[in-house]
Amino acid sequence: MFGLMDQFLKNDPITLQNDILRHVEYTVARSRFSFDDFEAYQALAHSVRDRLIERWHDTQVHFKRKDPKRIYFLSLEYLMGRFLSNSVINLGIRDQYADALSQLGFEFEVLAEQEGDAALGNGGLARLSACQIDSLATLDYPALGYGLRYQYGLYRQVILDGYQHEQPYYWLNFGNPWEIERIHVTYPVKFYGTVEEEDFNGGKRQVWVPKETVEAVAYDNPIPGYGTRNTITLRLWAAKPSDQNDMESYNTGDYIDAVVNRRTAETISSILYPDDRSHQGKELRLKQQYFFVSASLQDIIRRFKDAHSNFDDFPEKVALQLNDTHPSLAIVEVMRVLIDEEHLSWSRAWDIVCKIFSFTTHTVLPEGLEKIPVDLLESLLPRHLQIIYDINFNFIEKLKKRIGLDYDRLSRMSIVEEGAAKSIRMANLSIVCSHTVNGVSKIHAELLKTRVFKDFYELWPHKFHYKTNGVTQRRWIVVSNPSLCALISKWLGTEAWIRNLDLLAGLQEYATNADLHQEWKMVRKVNKMRLAEYIETMSGVKVSVDAMFDVQIKRIHEYKRQFLNILGIIHRYDCIKNMEKNDRRNVVPRVCIIGGKAAPGYEIAKKIIKLCHAVAEKINNDPDVDDLLKLVFIPDYNVSVAELVIPGADLSQHISTAGHEASGTGSMKFLMNGCLLLATADGSTIEIIEEIGADNMFLFGAKVNEVPVLREKGPALKVPLQFARVVRMVRNGYFGFEDYFKSLCDSVEVGNDFYLLGSDFESYLEAQAAADMAFVDQEKWTQMSILSMAGSGRFSSDRTIEEYAEKTWGIEPCRCPF
Ligand SMILES: CCc1ccc([C@H](C)CC(=O)N[C@@H]2O[C@H](CO)[C@@H](O)[C@H](O)[C@H]2O)cc1
């Protein structure tokens, strides 16, 4: 549909076949008469890459000619998943490729499975970056994403005996056809050393004398938009040894040392930190942050100076988005470069900094806020520490004028946290230096204003906003659910919804239409059968597609309450066991599906994974229960697994303790695939209720403002008997491993139950019972499913990005004219 516009490479099946075979022979270097699926995938990928590169060049040439204001998205994490299917769909040539391949005797889907996930991130924040860069491209914004090219992505989760084991995931084994190494785009990045004072223009100035240099090399990933020729860049930096260091050690003839030093350089960008909780203040982590910030800013300033000579124009041409505090050193680096290298005055540099940065926080928990130990910064980046002290000094001086000598508040707001382990509060630095600070949902922003950043909100209310997260319908419907995609386009009579998700509302009028119901149920059945097949392959458990598929897939965290889900399943099992035989025919069969990785050092989370397996072992092998209840843990949950599970889910759970999930984006993916939500009113779920209505969801639990009150009650809090009973079953070894699960049980004992599993248990069971009731009436359920999808328009990342572009970044689309 769009391919026709390509002036260059043709996309008719014959041309595609020839291109693929040419790459088999000349790129993969295999004979065109014998090559396997993986080699066919590599050749296919390279032929798609050629078409991406064409559009990419046109886009970059157009951006260069137009010289628009650009947005630079700085994120240490991107969970891109697979590139192939998304690329051919956004290029509009998936069908042509499927035809070409079938004539060569290959099936597109089979080859697509050959690709490993680009898992360069942990969870929500990382996948959000990927969805947002797809929307930036599709909406023709002049944007570029910067990040790190980890060689080891998020670890592979291997389950042995029900326990999580982490296996390093080296994803670049067979090269990566989706990236282009930019050998000419390299920058030196400095570390350590001292700061000397020297005379300058009759005054003094600070000069950083670094001790170590590594080279940053750019690897570019073309990101195609959907329904446009625009193809933007995700530029990931890799660390390489710099020749600058060696001379010295060579002179001392210490060759081995020289080579070893070379190796250490590469480690900077090699491993993703697999923890999405607290920051351990590790030196390598700080090195990663500064390495990517320094390389990105050298690249941004080089591009600006190619077309401009006056830095006063910088804020007119450059907007920088900080994806949480991980890239916040960029603020200090811009100050250093403008003052130390471009010789601007402090006030001019400061003026520019405050105009170019905007900051998004993804955390609700104060302990999740990043703090960098001063001594670490002092040794690694001495000049930056000086600049942070100067920024803080000026800030505190101004603050005193505004709020007087309220020392408690002054010390709460200080960027420098005094005390034994002096540290830098990166969130405070980001707020002081950014023109806009946003939460990722309406309620999140309220919590930032009233709790997390209360002091700053009272000082600068104008800075605080919310930009509710979104997800891209290209990957989460068109790529992962092609049969639903076709159904929507048929009933809406257009594919325009793929670029404008609000059009899904057009299906509301058909919510009770029998023909749509018929087709809808068929699509869902096909997806459930695909998921059932995967479950059997991965866990050996046979599940019935007539059962309700109840899914909870996300990182394992106490606040996300996977433990509550498991205790609910134990209760359901216990009820079935104690039921009269003939009452069992009223039980709605359930297949409970849980998936997610625990941070390697997060013991409680790992115990939850083990308990899930222990409970599954019991239930799945109990003939008494048979198909009425099954529990499966899906190992190694990642983007590609999500693409398979979400289309097959009937019910999905988002059951965090209210006030703990900043937004949540999984819920949005399930919603736009017609899966019903069982949820607490937390994060973005509150806005989903506004869009589709509470009567199309199963809601339960304490509200955000009730949680602190309930916590106050502590030991006086009433917990239902059923809750005490199921916890006791675990504690007494009903599922074995009682010693191992003791701390888990202790964590929900009365007076200790910080995440309120006990006090929410009753309403949780009621919501589950309501879901059972609804599922019995499949026409009712199908109506709710259609209305859920029809009301999901707002949760497209296109809407999110348009809000950032208009209200925060001040950028305009710059569409490639071809
Ligand atoms: C290593 C330190 C670290 C700490 C926090 C994080 C992320 C901020 C955690 C995260 O992914 N937060 C999630 O961000 C999503 C996107 O905005 C939200 O939808 C989730 O609610 C939030 O938990 C990554 C790494």
UniProtKB/TrEMBL annotation:
Identification of the protein by name: Alpha-1,4 glucan phosphorylase
Keywords tagged on the record: Carbohydrate metabolism, Glycosyltransferase, Pyridoxal phosphate, Transferase
Glycosyltransferase keyword on record: yes
Key word DNA-binding present: no
Its EC number(s): 2.4.1.1
Purpose: Allosteric enzyme that catalyzes the rate-limiting step in glycogen catabolism, the phosphorolytic cleavage of glycogen to produce glucose-1-phosphate, and plays a central role in maintaining cellular and organismal glucose homeostasis.
Superkingdom assignment: Eukaryota
Cofactor(s) the record lists: pyridoxal 5'-phosphate
Coiled coil: none
Family label: Belongs to the glycogen phosphorylase family.
Catalyses which reaction(s): [(1->4)-alpha-D-glucosyl](n) + phosphate = [(1->4)-alpha-D-glucosyl](n-1) + alpha-D-glucose 1-phosphate
